[in-house]
Amino acid sequence: MAKEQLLTEFSDARRSIIIALDPSAPGYASLGILRHLLDRRDRQFLGLVIEDTDLLAHAHSRMATEVALSGVARPLELTVLERQIRAQSAAIRQAFEREAARVGLPYAFKILRGKVTGEFALAAAGAEMVIVELPRAATGTESVWSNRLEQICKADLPTVLYAREGWTGNNTVLAVIETLDDIEATLHAAGVLARAGAATLTALISEDVEVEDTRVQAVLNAAMREGSVRIRRLAPLDLASRSLAYLARTGHARALVAPARLANSNRRFMREILQLTRCSIVLVNPPCGR
């Protein structure tokens, strides 16, 4: 499907925010975050569900079986699976629209069908931001998105916010600055989240970045407008995923904002932070870098 077809409902695709829902475990953490971003009412929100055609292809296989309540394995019927997928999508749509209306968000909803990662990348092209719904950590549930983290992180995407339930319980946003080019985009994204949630914003800057604190402070002040901001210098090794997870956990971070480059270059980056923390993660990919 061409990306223009997906975004026809929007008058300005660049001002759209796509909410990629998880069919296996929708928790609507993303809507809880958006409730704190109501100053962005000039944005248009698209709830997105992708029906996985690989599941249907598997149903065609002679190896595909399902286990009945009796415990007896039997061939998996394609029509039954098709009906289940459509019913699941309809239930997610109904729940999303009810919650979005309650929160007061302007929204649309789209159901796509295809290979999940490919359809996801096409859907995200041209959007300002994508919010990916992840399941609650306590459930231990693997999801359509967490199963594909490595592929998603390598896709050509805008800024992506991986939404988790830790958002409402903590009071700090951490922004990771690895290079000079990260300062503007990363602090802007972090400032939006911190400002909306009345959180403290802390910039974690590599000691390799040759920049005066006064410049960083000026960008922090512009990003926050008001509120508490801090600067912390770290050795480059302390920007590794496990070290950042420790800082997020001990610093009560509701969100960790980092350049998408960190996840692109280290396949363990996302998984380790997700496993070791409950915070949401924002991977910033400015338009000029795409």
Outline the secondary-structure elements.
Blueprint: H1 3-6, E1 16-20, H2 29-34, E2 44-52, H3 53-60, E3 65-67, E4 73-75, H4 78-103, E5 107-114, H5 116-124, E6 129-133, H6 149-154, E7 159-163, E8 172-177, H7 183-196, E9 200-206, H8 213-224, E10 229-234, H9 241-250, E11 253-259, H10 260-265, H11 269-276, E12 280-284
Parallel strand pairs: 1-2, 1-6, 2-5, 6-7, 8-9, 8-11, 9-10, 11-12
Antiparallel strand pairs: 3-4, 7-12
Helix pairs in contact: 7-8, 9-11
Question: What does this molecule look like?
Answer:
The two termini are 21 Å apart. By secondary structure, the protein is of the alpha/beta class. A hairpin with a 5-residue loop joins strand 3 (65-67) and strand 4 (73-75). The strands form two sheets. The chain has a ten-stranded mixed β-sheet, sandwiched between helices. It has a two-stranded antiparallel ribbon with strand order 3-4. Helices cover 38% and strands 24% of the residues. The chain is globular and about 60 Å long. Mean pLDDT is 78; it is low at 1-11 and 66-72.
